[in-house]
Amino acid sequence: MSKIRITKQFSFETGHALYGYDGKCKNVHGHSYKLSVTVIGTPISDPTNVKYGMVIDFSDLKKIVKTEIVDVFDHATVFNKNTPHVELAKELSDRDHNVLLVDYQPTSEMMVIDFAEKIKKHLPETIQLSALRLQETDSSFAEWFASDN
Ligand SMILES: Nc1nc2c(c(=O)[nH]1)N=C([C@H](O)[C@H](O)COP(=O)(O)OP(=O)(O)OP(=O)(O)O)CN2
């Protein structure tokens, strides 16, 4: 049976700031992120299986990505916890804002690496993460490919 890639797309609204960056993105700002998740596997060939013909049920893939990424990042503001932004993060958290501290600079590149690790941990053994595309603006995106890593 052929190997097939399937993709599901997600969107979420997230704030961030790039501490130490030499441009306008050092300021706290937000993006309507778009995330495409591509997995690869063999469609189930057993006609008695309720998932017959599927690599993975799109809704099962959705549950993983929603739990691990969308529900965590949506309407949160992400700061690098290794920078003085940690003080701003504490102030906002104390005022009941949804703040997410990560141990990396929250660029598209670093977020997509983080997302790849999070998704890989939750996929069934028969399915592999093939690619991720994280779109930050209409003209800017970062991609992760299994074949590169
Ligand atoms: N390699 C990266 N460069 C930049 C990132 C990033 O994650 N990786 N992020 C930013 C900012 O977050 C910025 O909001 C997005 O940058 P940019 O595409 O330059 O946004 P603009 O809307 O200004 O771009 P247009 O060309 O006007 O569409 C900066 N760099």
From TrEMBL:
Name of the top EC class for this enzyme: lyase
Q: Which cofactor does it need?
A: Zn(2+)
Catalytic activity, EC: 4.1.2.50
User: Which protein family is it in?
Assistant: Belongs to the PTPS family. QueD subfamily.
Which Gene3D superfamilies has this protein been placed in? Answer: 6-pyruvoyl tetrahydropterin synthase/QueD
Quote the protein name from its UniProt record: 6-carboxy-5,6,7,8-tetrahydropterin synthase
Its UniProt pathway annotation is: Purine metabolism; 7-cyano-7-deazaguanine biosynthesis
What keywords would UniProt list here? Lyase, Metal-binding, Zinc
Give the matching InterPro entries.
6-PTP_synth/QueD, 6-PTP_synth/QueD_sf
User: Matching Pfam families, A to Z?
Assistant: PTPS
Q: Which organism is it from?
A: Gelidibacter salicanalis
Lineage, uppermost ranks: Bacteria, Pseudomonadati, Bacteroidota, Flavobacteriia, Flavobacteriales
GO molecular function, a single term: metal ion binding
Catalysed reaction(s) here are:
7,8-dihydroneopterin 3'-triphosphate + H2O = 6-carboxy-5,6,7,8-tetrahydropterin + triphosphate + acetaldehyde + 2 H(+)
